[in-house]
Amino acid sequence: MRRLFNILLYGFLAICITASVGAGLVYFLLSASVPDYDEDFTVAGLGGPVDILRDSSAVPHISAASAADVYFAIGFVHAQDRLGQLLRARRKAEASWPSDEILDLEPAVSDALASYAAGVNAWLELVSEGGRGRGSPELLIADERSIAAWTPGDSLRIARSFLNGLRPGSAREGMPSISGAIIPADRLRVPELFATDPEQRLDAWAIDGDRTATGTPILAADISGSLSLPSEWYLADLQFSTGPAIGATIPGVPFVIVGRNARVAWAFRSFPVPDEEAPRGPSPVRAAGFLTMLELFARSADAIDAIGVAADMLPKGMEALAIDRETVARWPRAEAVRASSFRDIRLAELEARQSIFSTEGAIGVQRDTVSSVARTLLPLMAKELWFVQSRDSIEGTDADSLRRELLDRLASWNGEMDRYSPEPLLFWTWVRALQQRILKDEFPTAEQLWTRPNPNFLYAVLSDRRGSAIWCDIRLSSPRETCEEQVRVALDDALGWLVDRYGRDPSTWTWGEEHRLDMQWSPISSRGLLTDLLSLQAPISGDPYTLFLTSFGVEEDRPFLVSAGSNFQAVMSISEAAGSYYISPTGQSGHPLSRFYDNLFPSWIQGEYLAMSTDLSLARGGASGISRLTPATSDNPRMSEGQSE
Fold it and tell me: Where are the transmembrane segments (predicted)?
């Protein structure tokens, strides 16, 4: 017996030691690719020394004597922090456009792309020397044995992919189209039924100086898209000899897409142009024009100068806004003609309510989570329900009593999509059940039509626009059902679903229980223990139609799970008194072991914006690192110095 005990004990100890050694080895390999922001490097391709100051949030402030060296350095830090993301973006762009035309780019843009590529390749060369864990943790298990050098064409394709992502889903090549679904002959065609969302959306609005506390204009920018780790956006301050440019960049592209210099701030609005350039999407020429416009924006002297550039180079489907100390300018000069969205309606309400804006007031508007969808649809849905009986389909409950309690709650609700309130959960569950009731008989196999709430379609039907109420009739039944009947039955469907899921006490229901953020580490697509360890999850306010946008998911069992939404917001003013601010959901690093992997997440959840400052003296306060890139010479060959300050 004693012998058996010793065998088991030693076996257990051997397993523990093996597991500990294995875990230590894995940790060592993974931690080797965490960049040291105080490390200096000697690299080939530079014209002069470059200083990279990382502020307390690890945003790099890059200073160099020439623009070429600044663009080299932004390529270097993009690769240093987001190498895996860079390579994934390149693979995705190459899959869509295997080759690009050879373009005659503007010299400044051509030189910038070449310098950027040299910076990326300088980091790749350092990684290839070993000791850096292949530069990114996911590359340790990647099947590509060698990494091809970065080229200017890679950046051009990524810019093209970005522009393509602004188009509606069915207009993008390879995306399934639902617009070809056959509408029964006895149903009125409602165009909103087949509307699809783009991968990314750009929004912006500006306030003239006569309506601001400081007398200088304010520009608010909002970008929505995938909420993943790392973020799709990378913040940077490019300190050119002609002046700084700070804001949001895309890993793979060297220019600030939304941001400001010392004199001008710029942002964009996007709107769908479904048939433009179909089926191939934006051309290389259009992508090159977009990059040229961004390069010129960084050097613009005033808002009129910037918009003059946009007039010649702005891609279709986009609107440019720019401000300086006195002027708000836009192109096209007349706002694009399009149907007002629910978000536009809410923005107009908030703008009309406030006569004078501060930057704090603009931030409050950006973070607003009151839904115009709820304010618009709820009166149409509930107008008759106080006067009819329930069909008592909620097993084990007094359906009439529960329904009355919840309708009373909705009657006094202002449409605030608060994560701790039950009303948003009831409303959207009801809307989803109603849409399924209306559409499932016409499209029994097209689940994406009747499982994803479409408020624009429902508004047309419930308001009987041009006879659209005919959609409420179930085609397979003999009686003709009305919208009032469908709304009542859908409410009972929703209550049954909620009671089964959360019990009979509505005071315990919360929107955040279903409307949860699930921000996953993007290199891993499948769910598992590792994904759960590296992801960020939290209850979150808002909906797809609030100004602070949080989209719904596609999982049948978790229909309101959030994996996309507002992933960069900025409020900018060319005023020392007002200042400029930004917020992003994650950190600068794409490495899960870096302390800057998710350090911005608490601030983003709470709506606490960070200062967008080009003042290097402020950046040095609490700096997370200072490194220098030195040009390699024959006497000083290219190598990592491995020094720390």
Answer: 7-30
pTM: 0.90
The phi, psi pair for 249, rounded to 5°, reads -120, 160
Task: List, in order, residues 6 or more apart from 508 with CB less than 8 Å away.
Answer: 502
CA dist list (Å): 399 to 383, 387, 451: 18, 14, 25
The DSSP secondary-structure symbol of 643 reads E
- How many Cα neighbours within 13 Å face the side chain of 387? 3
Extract long-range pairs of 47-51: CB within 8 Å, 24+ residues apart. 47/631, 48/631, 49/628, 49/629, 49/630, 49/631, 50/628, 50/629, 51/626, 51/627, 51/628
The stretches of 481-600 forming alpha helices (DSSP H) are 483-502, 511-514, 529-534
Residue closest to 492 by CA, chosen among 421, 415, 406: 406
Q: What is the pLDDT of residues 611-641, one digit of tens each?
A: 999 999 999 988 999 999 999 875 666 544 4
Residues in the chain: 645
Pull the structure tokens for residue 390.
Answer: 């329930």
The Cα 423–Cα 410 span in angstroms is 6
Confidence at 191, pLDDT banded by 50, 70, 90: confident
Residue 433's alpha-carbon distances to 339, 470, 559, in angstroms, are 26, 18, 11
Count the neighbouring beta carbons within 10 Å of the beta carbon of residue 538.
15
Element (H, E) at 362: helix 359-366
Identify whether the C-beta of residue 268 lies closer than 8 Å to the C-beta of residue 258: yes
Report the candidate in 109, 130, 128, 131 with the shortest Cα–Cα distance to residue 120. 128
Beta bridge mates, 518: 537
Sign of CA dihedral 184, 187, 190, 195: negative
Structure tokens, 573:
């003013």
Dig out the tokens for 394 from the structure. 């909620």
pLDDT tens, residue by residue, 493-526: 999 999 999 998 999 999 999 999 999 888 876 5
Burial class (CB in 10 A: 0-12, 13-18, 19+), 412: exposed
Comparing CA positions, the residue from 114, 230, 37 lying closest to residue 623 is 37
Q: What residue ranges do the domains of the chain occupy?
A: 1-33, 372-414+422-509
Place of tokens 């097209």: 446
Give the integer Cα–Cα distance in Å for 594 and 34.
6
- The predicted-structure confidence for 533-573, as pLDDT tens digits, reads as follows 778 999 999 999 999 999 998 788 899 999 999 999 999 99
HSE (CB half, 13 Å, CA atoms) of 442? 23
Question: 3-state class of 344 per DSSP?
Answer: helix
Handedness of CA 205, 208, 212, 217 (dihedral sign): positive
Q: What is the CA 57 to chain-centroid distance, rounded?
A: 19
CB atoms within 10 A of CB 148: 11
pLDDT, mean of residues 303-331? 95
Sheet holding 564-572, edge to edge: 201-207, 218-226, 564-572, 581-583, 610-611
Q: Round to whole Å and give the CA distance between 592 and 604.
A: 18
